[in-house]
Amino acid sequence: EIVLTQFPDFQSVTPKEKVTITCRASQSIGSSLHWYQQKPNQSPKLLIRFASQSMSGVPSRFSGSGSGTDFTLIIHSLEAEDAATYYCHQSSDLPWTFGQGTKVEIK
Amino acid sequence: EVQLVESGGGLVQPGGSVRLSCAASGFTFSTYEMNWVRQAPGKGLEWVSYINFAGNVIYYADSVKGRFTISRDNANSSLFLQMNNLRAEDTAIYYCARVPFGEHIDYWGQGTLVTVSS
Question: Which residues of A touch B106 (CB under 8 A)?
Answer without folding.
Answer: 46, 49, 55
